[in-house]
Amino acid sequence: MLAIIFGIIAGIVTGLGMGGGTILILLLSLFLSLDQHTAQATNLVFFIPTSLAAIFTNWKQKNVDSKLALSISFYGILGAILGAIVSKNISSEHLKKYFAIFLLLIAFHEVYELYKGYKRKRKNA
Fold it and tell me: Is 64 left (phi over 0), alpha (psi -120 to 50) or beta?
C-alpha cells in the first residue's frame, strides 16, 4: 500500500517538474528503510516511465525546446554514467549525507528565490 501512495505522490511531483525522484528517494529511505543505493537505483527505474509520460504531455502542449533538450540529454547521459561509477565507490552512509546536503542546498535556493521575489514585489508596490 505504501508503494502505491509513494508512487502517486512522486508521480504528481514529477508531472509538475519538481523532482519527484527526490521525494521518492526520501520516502523509500525513511519509510521503507531502503539503503541509499537501493533507493536511488529504484528511483532511476521509476524515472523512466514517469518521465516519458511527462515528456509526452509536455510535447503535446508544445512546452519542449527540442534542440536544448537533446543537448542537455547527451551531456546528462555522460554525467549519469560518471555519477553511477562514483556512486558505486561511495558507502551508503556517505551517499545519504551527500543527498541530505543536496536537499539542503535546494531548500536554501528556493527560500532565497522566494525572498528575492518578495523584496521585488514590495519594491514595486
Answer: beta
Concatenating the DSSP letter of every residue in 68-94 gives HHHHHHHHHHHHHHHHHHHHHTS-HHH
Cell of 116: 528575492
Are 28 and 42 spatial neighbours (Cβ–Cβ below 8 Å)? yes
Q: How would residue 51 be classed by pLDDT, with cut points 50, 70 and 90? A: confident
Quick check: 46 and 25 in contact, CB under 8 A? no
Exposed/middle/buried for residue 37 (C-beta within 10 Å: 0-12, 13-18, 19+): middle
Question: 13 and 19 in contact (C-beta within 8 Å)?
Answer: yes
**What does the pLDDT look like over 82-123, one tens digit per residue?**
988 998 899 989 988 998 898 899 889 989 999 999 999 888
Three cell numbers, residue 6? 509513494
The predicted model scores a pTM of 0.67
Please tell me the least confidently modeled range out of 9-13, 56-60, 91-95, 108-112: 9-13
